[in-house]
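Before relying on records like the one below, remember that each one covers exactly one chain. Contacts with other chains, cofactors or solvent are not represented anywhere in the record.
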Amino acid sequence: MKYLSIPMIASLFSIVGISLEVILLFNLMIVVHELGHFLAARACGLVVEKFAIWFGKPIWSKKIDGVEYRLGSIPAGGFVAIPQLAPMEALEGKTENDYKDLPLASPLHKIIVAAAGPVFSLLLAFVFACIVWKVGRPVSEAERTSVVGYVLPEGPAAKAGLQPGDKILSVNGHPVTRITGMGKMSDSVAWNVATSQSPLIPIRFERDGVEKTVEIEPCVQPRQGWGRKNLRQIQLLPAMTPMIAQVVKGSPAAEAGLEPHDQILAANSIKLLSLPALAEILKATPGKPVTLTVRREINRDSSKIFNVSITPQVPVGEKEARLGIYWDQRGMMTLTHPTPVDQIMASVATMWETISAVATPHSEITLQHLSGPVGIMRIYYMLFQNPMGWRLALWFSVVLNVNLALLNLLPLPVLDGGHILLAIIETIIRRPLQHRVLEWIQNGCAALLIGFMIYVSFFDLLDLPWMHREKNGEPTSAVMKFAPQCEVPSSQGEEK
């Protein structure tokens, strides 16, 4: 009989805890949006039949003052059933009161009720933005630099002559301040490369104080299986000092005295700007000791730099020699304190850039690159795994609620913006639309919306960790064991 070990139990509790945090935030976003519709409908005197979180067969429901409150079985959104607004049986199921049998709601009331959801989402975004302003938004080292850390051999950037240490200033005439990262995307190298449709992209960069310009022909990596189509790229990584996330017990790194949060500045006196650069040095000297220059923070105001000599060792059951280190893929994190207005404006800009890219003919960015509820919850889960997870999740919630508000304001039937558009049409023609026409429009667009959600959720499911296993320097297995070492390398250092 097998028993759960203490690490396994701790890991299980961590997974459950993170999952509950994700569900809490995701549901809060839905409840607040739908609460806006609910309160506005009640204030305008419209009939409200249901207040539902999630779709599908209800796993819980209760009727209070004529309103059925329910929790569905499909975690993909929620709704408030307001039959006087529009016939929505395709999404909300059969209603007790038929649209055509109820008193007509005025176009003004329809506009108020439809707009209330996005307004409440923006208010929630502002609340989150105020909290982020106070507690800070974590920004990784890789997100705040346009300095090249690694150039893939034989890739487009390498063929054009870009080198580690080069600082990219502009892409296709657009100034850039970073190579990758979320938030406003127009200042990102990766975004400008992906959205450019030119065969050759001019890239201006600085090397040793001298500005130069090269033209690079991007490439598109072949898609693996059924996953999303890869975007154009020039195959380089931002500069980032390798930082240790975890040291495996009994490994060469542990015997050398390395600790989590240690930064590896150089290997064999070669300055490191990326993890792949360290991997190349280790691969070039198999079985031989490597001298690492390490920086360790003592406190907020002081640190020490020292050298350690480590001989990589082959873990039990593995074939390649390793140091026994799990790396922090985000690098050093710093806290910024953007104002609520700056956060919301950046989120609006990101939304606009995304919609524009999707709507542009012949764009590489298409609907399959968007995410649905599955993808959103996956992002939340990944954010909560970071030590600064709550701060990251709060910042992402600002972006998400702004996106939810703006997407719902698009003038498409079924969406809030569609209800507003139909109400404006009623005002112009001075009479309500025919019920049959309205029902046909709503049901047709509902079918398209459901199809779109299934489409993007398919790609979201393919992004889940268990759908693909990738190795990045160290094995993805949670267990890495090393045979006992005979010698313990010494380390020396001086305070800085």
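The longest helix spans residues 6-44.
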